[in-house]
Amino acid sequence: MEFEKVNKTFKVVGMKNSGAFNNFGSEVPAFAQKLLSRSDEIQDHTGIEIALFEPKRDMNHLEGHYFVGLIVQDSVAEVPSGMEYIETTKDYVTTRGKVTRVGELHQHLMQWAEEQGYKRDLESYIVETYHPIKGKDEEVMIYLPIHS
What's the whole-model pTM score? Predict the structure, then answer.
């Protein structure tokens, strides 16, 4: 696994939902399918799926919100009904791997960030982008927000 620190801007048109953190593994992909069924309504999207997650701050933080969407080329003035435009620029630590190993990827990335002395930003969204690979498992790129 490779890890690095990056400064990245994400421009997203998507839909917001919330639920129990324990259910995100099944809820988020199902909600993403609803969004994808409306992808033709989103102008200038890149085709790259993205999810932004509220971080779980501690053991007592049981529910959170998330966005599922598509990355867009430029800022958007008009969004489809029931959707929002989000733009965020942050410093992140990042890694990429098979989506079937997303939990393991998160664990290793958090461990690496800690070893490097980076402090997680629990007020900013965790970002995942999804990349289909022809003939292989889909890959996920994880971006954990850190303090500069």
Answer: 0.94
DSSP states of the chain as a string?
---EEEEEEEEEEEEEEEEEGGGHHHHHHHHHHHHHTTGGGSTTEEEEEEEEE----STT--EEEEEEEEEESS--S---TT-EEEEEEEEEEEEEEEGGGHHHHHHHHHHHHHHTT--B-TTS-EEEEEE--TTS--EEEEEEEE--
Q: What does the pLDDT profile of the chain (148 residues) look like in tens digits?
A: 899 999 999 999 999 999 999 999 889 999 999 999 999 999 999 999 999 999 998 889 999 999 999 999 998 888 999 999 999 999 999 999 999 999 999 999 999 999 999 999 999 999 999 998 887 788 999 999 999 8
